[in-house]
Amino acid sequence: MTMRRAVAWGLAGVVASIAALAPLPARAELLPPLVAADGSVAAAWRDARLPQQQLPATRYAAETIDGRRAVRIEAEGAYGNLVHALRAEAPGLSLSWSWRVERFVEQSDLRRKEGDDNAVKVCVFFDLPMAAVPFVERQLLRLARSKTGEALPAATVCYVWDRQLAAGTALPNPYSRRVRYLVLRSGEGDRGGWRDEHRDVAADFLRLFGDEATQVPAVTAVAFGADADNTGGRSLAFVADLSLDR
After folding, report:
1. Taken in order 121, 182, 127, 2, is the CA torsion positive or negative?
2. Which of 85, 114, 189, 241 has its CA 20 to 30 A from that of 33?
3. Are β-strands 219-227 and 46-48 bridged in parallel, bridged antiparallel, or unpaired?
4. Over 90: is that where the pLDDT of 128 sits?
5. Nearest C-alpha neighbor of 9 from the set 137, 152, 208, 159
């Protein structure tokens, strides 16, 4: 695991560890709206970047497009995520959202470090016990946590709309197997239009991390974003109606 990637995901992990101390609201929906009443991106979604980040930050802005209140996600050689921390048992959770891509990151390739960029991703963080992490990765994760002083998540599932990989492809992040991708949509055939997604959080965790765990750990955060820092490219996408329900 590189320190850069460890720190990036650790930012969200810190927020999640703090939120774990607070009780969940007594309602089925576990995520706040993306867009606030005043038309801005809701403050409950925190901008997670690298410490002392020199790279440009991924830009987020509220926008109404085709009648939907959405978050515009624009990256230009940039990195950043919007994160909301929570704590909820994963079985029975359903993650839903709508997204659209206007511009993919040219030269992106999730199989390679130098191509590890994407126009849009929606991610779920899990409180996987350290004992479930393979020995070498466990030591790397402990080292990263020690050096950053942050509660880096041990398991993250990221849903992506990829430029080239076929829908249904599952693969690890090339920087760290603590993050694993599931491609839901592929290529430009659907580009420029809204597409709706509904995912069984527990089932997808077992699909991607079933080699390490048979029990699904608690969810500690949900994030979304885009990055174009490895290729230096550009992307434009939108996310709307992101919800986590039981």
Report:
1. negative
2. 189
3. unpaired
4. yes
5. 152
State pLDDT tens for residues 43-94: 999 998 866 678 899 999 999 999 999 999 999 999 999 999 999 999 999 9
SS3 content of the chain, % helix, strand, coil (to 5): 20, 40, 40
Retrieve residue 89's tokens: 């048992």
How many folded domains does the chain comprise?
1
CA 241 vs. chain centroid, Å, equals: 15
Q: What is the mean pLDDT of the chain?
A: 88
Amino acid of residue 105: V
3-class DSSP state of 110: coil
pLDDT at 3: 47
Task: Output the six-digit token pair for 108.
Answer: 């992106």
- The Cα–Cα gap between 197 and 237 comes to 15
Q: Which of 197, 224, 191, 182 is nearest to 104 (CA)?
A: 191
- Full domain range(s) for residue 40: 3-245
Burial of 243 per CB tally in 10 Å (0-12, 13-18, 19+): middle
Packed helices 135-148 and 3-19: angle between N→C axes, nearest 10 degrees? 80
CATH number of the domain encompassing residue 240: 2.60.120
Q: Is the pLDDT of residue 120 over 90?
A: yes
Q: Mind listing the pLDDT tens digit for each residue in 189-229?
A: 666 789 999 999 999 999 999 999 999 999 999 999 999 99
| 139 φ/ψ angles, rounded to the nearest 5 degrees | -65, -40
